[in-house]
Structure formats: C-alpha cells, structure tokens
Amino acid sequence: MTGAVNVFTYGSLMYDAVWGRLADARHRSVAAVIDGHRRFAVAGETYPALIEAPGHRVAGRLWLAVGPADVDRLDRFEGADYRRCRVMVTVDPAVDPSGRIEAQCYLWLDASRLLPVDWDVAAFERDHLAGFAQRHGAGDEPFGDDPARTEPVPGVSPRD
Questions:
Q1: What is the pTM of this model?
Q2: Which of 41, 63, 112, 159 is the most exposed place for a label (fewest CB within 10 A)?
C-alpha cells in the first residue's frame, strides 16, 4: 500500500485506548456512519463484526490520513477473520463538502460465527474496554495521544 488512507472503525478501534496501541494516536478522527452494513456480536468474543446488510447503518469513527505502516499494523491486528476493503462513509460536510468520503474498513468473513444480535457498545465499554488492547495482542505502550484531534461519535463514547 502506498500513501495515506482514511480508516472507518466501528468496534474496539473506535477507542483511543485500543487505536493508540496500534497506530499513531495523533491521527485526527471524526464521527462517521456507514450505510448498508450491520454490526453483529461474534460468538465467544468481545469485539464486533461488520457485514453488508441493506437497510442498516452503523455509527463509528473515521481516522483520517492513516499511513501505510499504521495500516500494516492494523491488518496484522485484525487478522484472517477480516478483509480490509474500500467503502464510502457519511461525514459532516465540514470534513468533506459532499458529506461522503472514501475509507478502508475491516469486514468480517465468517458469517457462521455471528450471533443474531447487534454488538453491545455499552457492554463493551463497561466490561471489556479496559485492557482490551493488551489481551488481543496490541502493543504495551501507546504511540501518543492528543485529545484535541478527535470529535465525538454520536451514540458512542470512545473515551475510556
């Protein structure tokens, strides 16, 4: 991969405590929504899966101008259960005048492991966010953090 890309996140990577262990936490991020997809709970896991699902939409966090080295680390973190692909997400027109922006996103591959329920954001924040990055193989030290670079995601509180 050459050049920086935007990365749409919808689960653990929306949170600075996880993102900052894998990528340069100084990347600016904004609220975003992906249409035509649904976020499911995964059997036996605390993280979610995103799959195409017409008529559904998912709120998440869009990290802007993520460099190739960070994307490589994210690819390794997501592993073989996900496929990184190009998607279009909706953002505030202050971010892009069209209100739509291209991004990379990790889509789930094995539908047989999905539970028939949406992933519970509040339960993740309450019960699993603390220590999630270390339990799932992210680095022990953050790359750095700058709270001024993020905007809140409606319906999601990505700060721990």
A1: 0.86
A2: 112
- Give the span between the Cα atoms of 44 and 32, in whole angstroms: 28
Of the candidates 154, 134, 122, the residue with the CA atom closest to the CA atom of residue 17 = 134
Reported for 90-95, long-range contacts at CB under 8 A and 24+ positions apart, including other chains, are 90/32, 90/33, 90/34, 90/35, 91/30, 91/31, 91/32, 91/62, 92/30, 92/31, 92/151, 95/30, 95/62, 95/64
Backbone angles phi, psi at 107, to 5 degrees: -100, 145
Q: How do residues 88-125 score in pLDDT, each as one tens digit?
A: 999 999 999 999 999 999 999 999 999 999 999 999 99
> What is the rounded distance in angstroms from the CA atom of residue 7 to the CA atom of residue 89?
10
How many CA atoms are closer than 13 Å to the CA of 55, on its beta-carbon side?
A: 0
Give Cα 107 distance to the centre of its chain: 10
- Can you tell me the distance from the alpha carbon of 91 to that of 109, in angstroms, rounded to the nearest whole number? 26
- DSSP letters, 45-83, are -SSEEEEEEEEEEEEEEEEEEE-HHHHHHHHHHHGGGEE
> From CA 124, how far away is CA 120, in angstroms rounded?
6
In this structure, what token pair is assigned to residue 10?
């919808």
